[in-house]
Design goal:
By secondary structure, this protein is mainly α. It has 11 helices and 2 strands, in the order H-H-H-H-H-H-H-H-E-H-H-E-H. A two-stranded parallel sheet has the order 1-2. Helix 2 packs across helix 10 and helix 9 crosses helix 10.
Length: 217
Amino acid sequence: MTLVRCGWVNADPLYIAYHDAEWGVPVTDDRTLFEFLVLEGAQAGLSWYTVLKKRAHYREAFAGFEVDRVANFGARDVERLLQDPGIIRNRQKVEAAIRNARVVRQLQDEFGSFAAYLWRFVDGRPIINHWRTLADVPVNTALSDALSKDLKRRGCSFVGSTICYSFLQATGLVMDHVTSCFRHSELARGQLPDTARPQGGGDAPRAQSFTRRDDRL
């Protein structure tokens, strides 16, 4: 039996594995969340497939995406990264990754974790959408607008609303597999464990500010 997948997946086993095992799965680990924040920013103007093929090298170049280590990168690290052919050698993107790491570290101090900050935007549970076709899937929403605005206010860059929506999709805060995809039913049944739900924290917008999508088109 042939599995039906979202139409954006190509035949590369790397891409298939990413779609089947990662995309849309709720993430509560700060290192992984920061990794996606960097990679989604690197994707700007490019395809996700291009960045995905460089992902393993990004992990080496960016100290395993350990927030504290990247936040402490300096001018020499920037120049080192700009000479590294294994990543997207764009100065603005490289400097943004370092600057964003420092913001994430501040968010960890304020909310207890980067995950706690993010999951407050969806009230601690994934938004499960029911799009029939790829054409139905939005590129940004009121939720991604709000996340983008708040991250920019805190000093992040390369976090426009479209980038933020891709980030939310990748990390499972929003589940956007189309209904015909075999992963849709699997993830729609899943729940974020109570132990992973964000607790307390500082002042971040909450889900009640946004329209929760659970559309059955």
